[in-house]
């Protein structure tokens, strides 16, 4: 099994990783609308806290618990 760093580096070097790197929540443009984010928190079973908002995109800012539950590779 590859680490997140190895996985992302493999893709950047045009190699095949063990799985596609997950970049949800890595930056504001990979976020979700607030309602979708709250539903994701429910599905993942993580504590539901009021989401912080990216005011430009009106997206929720991913919390660490959500990124970990989704096995995020990019922060």
Structure explained in plain terms:
The chain has 75 residues and is of the alpha+beta class. Helix content is 35%, strand content 11%. Strand 2 and strand 3 (59-61) form a beta hairpin. The protein is elongated and about 40 Å long. The two termini are 19 Å apart. The model has no long low-confidence stretch (mean pLDDT 87).
In short:
The chain is of the alpha+beta class and 75 residues long.
Which key terms come to mind for this protein?
75 residues, alpha+beta, three-stranded antiparallel β-sheet, elongated
H/E topology pattern: HEHEEH
What fraction of the residues are assigned to beta strands by DSSP?
5-15%
Largest beta-sheet details: 3 strands, antiparallel
- What value does the Rg take, in angstroms? 14 Å
Helical/strand content category: alpha+beta
Number of strands: 3
- Overall, the morphology is elongated
Discrete helix count: 3
**Largest sheet strand order:** 1-3-2
């Amino acid at each position: 099994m590859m680490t997140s760093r190895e996985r992302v580096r493999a893709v950047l070097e045009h190699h095949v990783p063990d799985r596609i790197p997950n970049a949800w929540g890595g930056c504001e443009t990979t976020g979700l609308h607030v309602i979708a984010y709250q539903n994701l928190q429910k599905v993942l079973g993580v504590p539901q806290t009021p989401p912080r908002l990216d005011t430009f995109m009106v997206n929720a800012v991913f919390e660490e618990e959500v990124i970990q539950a989704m096995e995020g590779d990019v922060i």
